[in-house]
Amino acid sequence: MPGTLARVNPLRFERTRPTDYLLRLAASDLGRAYKSLAVAEMGIRGGDTVLDLGCGPGADLAAFAEATGREGRVIGIDTDPAVVAEAANRVAGLPQVEVAQADVHALAIPDASVDRVHTDRVLQHVADPAAVLREARRVLRPGGSAVFAEPDWDTLIIDYPDLAVPRAYTRFVTERVVRNDAIGRQLAGLAMRAGLEVGNVIPITAVFRDVRAADKVLGLSRVTSRAVIAGYLTEETAGQWLDHLARPPFFCSLTLFIVAAAIEAAV
């Protein structure tokens, strides 16, 4: 029947999440732009110790290693053993980088032993973001700094003639897909309550005008199918939605916030 999910051309949208999703996002124009800004905000110096919480497959570790140099140290932490192994393989030629499987809520790292802390789209998924930020504060040395980058999923907008449909889609994402969907707006406050001094808060709004580019980041078809199963969209509405999105013009945007914070240097 026209407008059903079965009618949507599978070549237009990805049906399963690719295994290289995080690396592919890091290599995109959007990823390179906001990641380079995050590195600049961190202010890494030669010889620094840098801690990357939720490092995933190690997309950012090489950049941190380059900034801190051979005399520095870069530590990548992740809970997933598969991505830890992938990250370790990726940085095998960088002796100043080490990767470990660990819980970001409870780090086996001494107090005041790290110069820079970084997270990127990690706090949206963790059980207790406030606890992770408290750990970041605990391990930072006086004068150290942290940079956190997180989206706010309530800012997801997609152009469609019937506004009720993208609103239902976004509501499914915020209510059922992302654990901490409003972390972007909460991030500065959480950092302050953890004992960090918040400096810059930088909004990065990603604008997609190519549906394939958006699909690679947002998984439009995959999420739509889940929204149907969860009862947020009917199959007929979902099919019409995807058919429409596949035809230009397409417009979608989402805002991510970079929060730079620090600990005052010892007198």
Overview of this structure, please?
The chain has 267 residues and is α/β, with parallel strands linked by helices. 39% of the residues lie in helices and 24% in strands. The chain is built from ten helices and seven strands. It has a seven-stranded mixed β-sheet with strand order 3-2-1-4-5-7-6, with helices on both faces. Strand 1, helix 3 (61-68) and strand 2 (73-78) form a beta-alpha-beta unit. The longest helix is centred in the first third of the chain and has 14 residues, at 29-42. It is elongated. It starts with 20 loop residues before the first helix and ends in a 5-residue tail after the last strand. The relative contact order is 0.17.
What descriptive keywords fit this protein?
about 270 residues; seven-stranded mixed β-sheet; 10 helices; about 25% strand
Compact description:
The chain has 267 residues and is α/β, with parallel strands linked by helices.
Give the arrangement of secondary structure elements.
Blueprint lengths: L20 H7 L1 H14 L6 E5 L7 H8 L4 E6 L2 H10 L6 E5 L12 E7 L8 H11 E19 L5 H14 L5 H11 L3 E12 L2 H8 L1 H10 L5 H11 L6 E11 L5
Parallel strand pairs: 1-2, 1-4, 2-3, 4-5
Antiparallel strand pairs: 5-7, 6-7
Helix pairs in contact: 5-7
